[in-house]
Description:
- The chain folds into 2 domains: 4-120, no CATH class; 125-166.
- The chain is built from 3 helices and 7 strands.
- The protein has helices at residues 80-97, 105-121, 126-164, and strands spanning 4-9, 13-19, 29-34, 37-42, 48-53, 56-57, 67-72.
- Strands 1-4-5-7 form a 4-stranded antiparallel beta sheet. The protein has a 3-stranded antiparallel beta sheet with strand order 2-3-6, with no helix packed on it.
- It starts with a strand and ends with a helix.
Amino acid sequence: MGFDGLNLQFAESFTGNMRIADTQDKDNELHTQKGGILAIIYNETGNIDVMILPSKSQDSLAEHTHIILHHTYNARTITAKRIEKYVKAFIRYHRYTGVLHQSTLTDELIIRWLKIRMFWIQYLNPNEKFKRYSGLYIPVLSLLVAFVAAIASILSLVVTLNATGN
């Protein structure tokens, strides 16, 4: 996957919960939360991705995906101002996905916006663009053509029946 990269991660924290085993064979298990990760990855193809990965905990059954914040082939587009924005988004996502923190409404709205933005960022990758075109647009287009053909068939049937007088 990655050729070179830089990661920023929150430390693993004890959540305050634990599982106590009833038998002598098993040890007690302390529940922890692994912190989220801000990753800047330089790929062997020259592609640079900035993404955030969610925090994980044994106390949460929620499944969160990564969010791509930036995708480029030009390292000059990653400026200090952008890195500050990425760190702020990273902290918000850590609060949003972590069990030790309470996310605010602002956090949730910004995370939703970042997920929508990620959908459009994925179009920059030609392979992903083909998958989305073939998976979304081609079936919708064929449905539209079938609908127009059905209307044309009904209209021709109505015209034929009117012409014959039935």
